[in-house]
Design goal:
The chain is of the alpha/beta class. It contains twelve helices and 13 strands. It folds into two domains: 147 residues, Periplasmic binding protein-like II (D-Maltodextrin-Binding Protein, domain 2, 3-Layer(aba) Sandwich), CATH 3.40.190.10; 125 residues, D-Maltodextrin-Binding Protein, domain 2 (3-Layer(aba) Sandwich). Helix 2 links the parallel strand 2 and strand 3. Helix 5 packs parallel to helix 7. It is globular, with a radius of gyration of 19 Å.
């Protein structure tokens, strides 16, 4: 299994790799991966970090997702994982340690031709069950789903008992669109006429996505409304390390948790909830 995971990561690593580097030193190389939303947050942080550490060599491949990144980390194919969920019992038992960092509003989005600025929970329930099949202007509604076990699906289920039932019903409807990763999800929504789905607000900001963010029950998705509890949906962002985490990786983590790193993450749409000393408290 270990060999399989190493080969899997290598294959994905070679397919799409983003390298951020100053003066390249092998000892300063940090290999990171995780959920798509979390990696979108990392891009501006890494850009700022390499300006202050010219020996940094950060390697970030196509998103493996939270579970895939943790598996790669435990197989020593990564130095750090950035995830959108808590650790599973078996992952912690194998040595994975979680450090909470922050969260981003989890936003209901549509492609640009849909003429809506807001939506209610009841409307979402009717859309996901198929009771409502067209937008007001007559365009067919195309829901972009995520896998049943995905954290995005679990977040949507938690919106209401009716939404929980609607999610289950949506996965039994024929012809539904299913996106496996965060990147697949927002890329599919933006190119699908009448498309609707959900993603982290930080991805919309960092990637400058041509999507319309909808208010939910009259509440706009924002860091202020998320912090106050007025906006109900959020996607967590946490870092996962092990006892083998390298000094170069800890140096990057220190920057991310610093006042400067926290400010950069905030501009990228992340409500940082950890203090500047929290990086020393993995659990």
């Amino acid at each position: 299994m270990l060999r399989f995971l190493q080969l899997l990561f290598t294959t994905l690593f070679l397919s799409v790799v983003l390298v951020y580097t100053g003066t390249c030193h092998a000892a300063d190389t940090v290999r990171i991966n995780g959920s798509g939303n979390a990696l979108d947050m990392m891009q501006p942080l890494i850009n700022a970090y390499i300006k202050t550490n010219h020996n940094a060599h950060i390697v970030m491949a196509k998103p493996l997702g939270s579970s895939g990144a943790i598996k790669a980390l435990l197989a020593d194919a990564l130095d750090m994982a950035i995830v959108s969920r808590d650790l599973k019992t078996e992952e912690a038992a194998q040595g994975a340690m979680l450090m909470r960092y922050g969260k981003t509003p989890f936003v209901i989005v549509t492609e640009k031709s849909v003429h809506r600025s807001g939506i209610s929970t009841k409307e979402l329930e009717d859309i996901y069950t198929g009771k409502t099949g067209t937008w007001q202007e007559g365009k067919k509604i195309r829901v972009v789903l995520r896998p049943l076990a995905d954290i995005d699906t679990l977040i949507m289920r938690g919106l209401s008992p009716g939404m929980n039932s609607a999610i289950t019903a949506s996965h039994t409807r024929p012809g539904m669109v299913l996106a496996i990763t965060d990147l697949d999800s927002y890329a599919t929504i933006k190119k699908t006429p009448g498309g609707i789905g959900a993603t982290g607000m930080n991805s919309i900001i960092s990637e400058k996505l041509p999507l319309t963010m909808l208010s939910l029950n009259g509440i706009k998705p924002s860091l202020k409304n998320l912090a106050s509890g007025a906006y109900p949906l959020a996607k967590e962002i946490s870092f996962v390390t092990t006892a083998k985490t390298t000094p170069a990786t800890w140096k990057l983590i220190d920057f991310i948790f610093s006042a400067k790193g926290r400010a950069i993450a905030g501009k990228a749409g992340v409500l940082v909830t950890a203090g500047v000393t929290e990086r020393s408290k993995p659990h």
